[in-house]
Design goal:
Blueprint: H1 5-9, H2 14-30, E1 35-39, E2 42-47, E3 50-57, E4 61-65, H3 68-73, H4 75-80, E5 84-85, E6 90-93, H5 100-113
Antiparallel strand pairs: 1-2, 2-3, 3-4, 4-6, 5-6
């Protein structure tokens, strides 16, 4: 997780920084085979060189990016969790709970679906 320290240090709100750190740490502990990396100034996790999930922060939310295919597949669950989303990101407002079960389902899907993919993106 040392890879993420410079990114986390730039988050000015201590509670936002802690929430982001908690999510990244949870993924790192739950999926020890995923590689934590920084690309395009954003923390992300890869598996055998292919993108699995990435994160960004804004004033209003923590955004996760599991790729468009995954967002479309889990759109109903994302809505049920109370999160807003676009084709490319899911927004978890800072005052919302993180649905770790949903996050796990999206990561599990990407790992399985991209098992044979050799490029970074789908």
């Amino acid at each position: 997780m040392k890879e993420f320290e410079p990114f986390l240090a730039k988050i000015s709100q201590p509670d936002h920084q802690q929430r982001t750190k908690d999510v990244l740490l949870w993924i790192n502990q739950t999926y020890p085979n995923l590689e934590p990396v920084i690309k395009w100034n954003q923390p992300m996790f890869t598996d055998h060189g292919t993108f699995i999930i990435g994160f960004s922060v804004s004033k209003k939310h923590l955004a996760l990016s599991p790729e468009t295919v995954t967002i479309k597949l889990f759109a109903q669950a994302i809505e049920q969790a109370g999160y807003s989303y676009t084709d490319n990101i899911v927004r978890i407002n800072w005052d919302q709970e993180v649905d770790y079960q949903l996050l796990k389902k999206m990561i599990d899907f990407n790992i399985a679906d991209k098992a044979e993919i050799t490029q970074f993106w789908r």
